[in-house]
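Let's inspect a concrete specimen:
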Amino acid sequence: MAKGYWVASVTVTDEEHYPEYLQAGAPVYEKYGAKFVVRGGRCEGMEGNTRKRNIIVEFKDYDTALEAYHSEEYQQAKKLRNQYADSDVLIVEGVD
């Protein structure tokens, strides 16, 4: 079964408060068995629009990635993210 991934590009607009989002999201990642494949790090935009922070989170499958995103816990964390950052988020299915 193919894994599922959250792929996010983020520009933090409030560095002081952004850790509140990270803290609120942590239990969701643990609950759904998420693994960070990319979390920040260096990047160089080659084509299109690029944000400073890029994240790839791996889940056991696509349905779990969707379930985690739509969970009540993550929706609460997302409200914080939206206050402290501008983001683009995709959920994609990996190659089986």
The mean pLDDT is 96.
